[in-house]
Prior knowledge:
Shape: globular
CATH class of the largest domain: Mainly Beta
Order of helices and strands: EEEEEEEEEEEEH
Radius of gyration: 21 Å
Strand content: over 45%
CATH topology of the largest domain: Jelly Rolls
Structural class: mainly beta
CATH superfamily of the largest domain: Galactose-binding domain-like
Distance between the termini: 40 Å
Number of domains: 2
CATH architecture of the largest domain: Sandwich
Amino acid sequence: MAWVSPTGFVDLDSEWANEPHIYDNDFDTQGTNTIGGNSWGSFVELTISPISCDKLRFYCDWVSIGINEIDLDVYYGGGWHDVYQGSYADDEWVEKPLGGTYTVSAARAKFHAGVVGGAVYFREFEFNEVEAGEERLLTATCSASSSTTGSLILGKIESLTAMSASANQ
């Protein structure tokens, strides 16, 4: 697995500034969004060529204590899927799992401001790419004849019938 940065962005509401700094691998720069009190800011969408992905990570600086939540979604299978909504640590990497491995082409985030409002500094964002050949073995109960066994690997069943037959000889 390897952490990879987005390659582009979409800011539909034109409310963000310096969006490319969200994925420039430099903690001294950031994309920013100023948010009024008791409200959600606008989404910034971070795009990438489709990859197999199992988690996301982000690094943000509250700037003002009024920014108190993130809403993080990921795009796969033709739609947006919720990853996380809630509080987050200030000035450190925060990882959020997707609950499986999916072919992902974008993520989006927006932030919530408390009573005071303020600005968020979105310093970095990355997708965790699951490399080809990296396998996660899942255990499943299956019914099968005595001559057929199998394993569930990355959602595929690989038949071990030939091995099973040779073992019985």
